[in-house]
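Batch manifest line 407
LIGAND: beta-L-rhamnopyranose
JOB: complex structure
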Amino acid sequence: MRDYRTEYDILAARLAEAGIDIEAVKARLKAQQIETPSWGYADGGTRFGTYQQAGAAITAEEKIADAAQVHKYTGIAPGVAVHVAWDFPEGFDPALIDYASSLGVHIGAINPTCFQDPEGMMGTIANPDARIRQKAVDHMLESVEIGRQCNSAYLSLWFADGTNYPGQDDLIARRGRVADCLKTVHDAMPETMTMLVEYKPFEPAFYHTDIADWGMAYLFCMKCGERAKVLIDLGHHLQATNIEHIVATLLDEGMLGGFHFNNARYADDDLATGSVNPYQDFLIFDQLVIAESKANAAPIAYMIDQSFNVKPKIPGMIQSCINIQRTYARALLVDRKRLAAAQAECDIIGAEETLKDAYHADVEPLLVVVREEMGLAPDPLAAYLASGYGEKIAKERGVRQSGGGLG
Ligand code: RM4
Ligand code: MN
Ligand code: MN
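JOB STATUS: finished
ARTIFACT:
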């Protein structure tokens, strides 16, 4: 058994020497909030098939109940992002709002589901057919209405729109259609709502995607107005893209609205955050911490966008939340003065070592103390696994056909 208290005291003393106040670090860790996705609790798969897990959620109630378990043990996941067509196939029932709050969570970002309408095969908001565009806009307006009822701060948009062959459609005309539709939705949102515009380079469209990268998303946001911001999904980049550079740029422009955490090895794999490249996550959080420390830092929605094919879903989500928390903790420990001094002297080794020191820091004693002070078990994953919830839902719900996520 580790003596976390003593280790914590040693860490606190070491940080104090570097001028880092551990109480301030703890306060920021306690304030961290990560939204988990309803679709991460449902069965998912790839285009080659969907796997069924015993206990996987189908209804919105089940997804919210599962998300509440993640919050119960981690203490940092009170929001549940919803996908309108997947979660409310028969329309939104406002009773869900109270149901969520009775479990200690709330409905967060509203994700219109603009990619499953068979009529959207040639596009939704970029479709040459005005009637089909209007259908997508109407779905988004209904989503705004749901968000209004839930008091949700975010309308989170992703579109599968694109073409598969050169010449299939007029690229510029499509831009105009996308801009018009987004602007209509933007202007219909209540003042308290922000529109997040997500980009993705390919899939399902393989020749061109209408909102393919952060620059295109940014330009559409500019056309929409004040309350449109870019959303970065970690899985939506071509290989070797320097994502932290994009993060820094958007933060500097005040245009970063939100994050979809996951991890990708090949493309949009939706693997658990931190499972493949934790150092990249650290470098991203390093930029976020810098921005957060500035006066008037704009709010950023931290969301997970993962779907588990074969990994058990609730423990997978807890693991991801902890990975994100740990990464944030490490980024908070970067010795900023030492880093700035090294950078000013063009001391590459010193600068890199400063980052690496924080990255390699053992933050478990810090996290254990934070959890203790939040009234949580020191090891959320172990506490969840010991609770019997997974076995209980596997027995009660069983293995069921039907997605509720990527079905
Ligand atoms: C997309 C994108 C969206 C998510 C869907 C499920 O690739 O990441 O954010 O809503 O997947
Ligand atoms: Mn996403
Ligand atoms: Mn994705």
